[in-house]
Every structure is written in structure tokens, then in C-alpha cells.
Amino acid sequence: MPIFVGISQPKVINNRQIFWPHYFSRFEYGKLTFLADGSKRFEQNNAYQLIMRAGLAYQLSSNFELAAGFAYSEIYGVGKATRKERRPWKQITYRTKFNKLNFQARFRLEQRYNFDNKTDKYNYSNERFRFQIQFQYPIWSKNNKQVSGVLAEEIMLNQGKNVNTFDQNRIIAGIQYQWKKGNHILISYQNMYQQTRTKNTFDDFDILRILVVNTFKLKKNDK
């Protein structure tokens, strides 16, 4: 009588390198803030991914902020977009300070809609849960100028049919220079470990990310 023994397939890890320029802007109007950001990621001098987001945030208190918005993403193959995605999102952010150490925790929920070339429509795929923690510690400061060290980690999990539960994990370490409150540049190394659509295949990204943040005050807060 034959006996069949299942053998699990070995894990395949692809090592990849990405350059990630990213611009983020905040337009503050009292307790409301309009958010807009865009980034284009490059792999070996070729465009890899485009992401654009817009949203509206409301400052609940000095510690909590609620936000919701919309994102658009394209992943490129050979010179053209091979995967297009629309992502409505909502999030809550908590910020606090322990002496000089700044701490931030953010939870974001995304609904993912992928474009189907056969039907020429965007179809619902799954929900993605993102949880990020970040630590920022000032190394040098003078007036409003400041240099800080930044450490962060973010994990993303999927929920839905025919998707992997684990999506990706990001670990970030970098140096941030603030030239004015709410305006800074962050240069960081980021390791992104991501599961592909094939369960036993993972992409291990080494990323150089340059993030520029600008804040524009459209109205002074009431005293």
C-alpha cells in the first residue's frame, strides 16, 4: 500500500535594492489638516512603484489624531504599469513624549481594489491592517533647528479571500534634520521583508529612503 508523504516547499528569498524619494505635505487649518504625499520607488534605475495619497486629519487632542483618505498605486513591469490599485484608508495616530524621547504609534486600515484588465474595472481584493511604532530622539538642537535619530517598525497584515495573511514588515533607522518646526528631511535605511503572492516566496528589500516633509499653516490656532 503506497504511502504519500507531503514535503513542504523550501522558502525562496529574493534580495532587492530600492531607492525611495518621498515628499509629504501638511496644510493645517485649526484642528483640520489636509494631507498629501507622493513617492516613486526605483529599482536599478528603473521605476518600480508609484504611490500618491491625499487625506484629511482632525486633531482630537494633543495626543490623538484621526485621518481618512485615498491612495493610488502602480507597480511597474517592463516600462509599464502591471498592477494598479486604489486604496481608501483610515487611521488613528497617538503621539507622546518621554523627557526628550518622542514616541508615535499609528494604526491604519486600508481597503484594496486591484485593476482587472479583462473587465477594465477595479475589484475589491482585501483589507490590510498596518501598525507602526516610531521613536525619535534629538541629538542636537538650536532654536527651531534639530538633528534627531529615528527608529521605527511597521507590520502589515491582510484579511480576505485568496490572500496571504502576512504582507510585510518594515524596519527603519535614520537621521532627521529639522530646519523649522514641522519641516524636515529624513534620510534612512529601511529593510522591507515582503511575502509575494506565492506563499513560499519573499522579497527582502534594502531601501535608501529620502523623505521631505513640509507643513503649511493656513490659520493660526485659537489661543
What is the compact description of this entry?
This protein is mainly beta and 223 residues long.
Strands, helices and their partners?
Blueprint: E1 12-29, E2 32-43, E3 46-59, E4 64-76, E5 81-98, E6 101-116, E7 121-142, E8 145-159, E9 166-180, E10 183-195, E11 201-219
Describe this structure in words.
The protein is mostly beta strands and 223 residues long. It has a single domain (12-216), classed as Porin (Beta Barrel), CATH 2.40.160. 0% of the residues lie in helices and 78% in strands. The chain contains no helices and 11 strands. It has strands at 12-29, 32-43, 46-59, 64-76, 81-98, 101-116, 121-142, 145-159, 166-180, 183-195, 201-219. Strands 1-2-3-4-5-6-7-8-9-10-11 form an 11-stranded mixed barrel. The N and C termini lie far apart (84 Å). Residues 1-6 have low confidence and may be disordered.
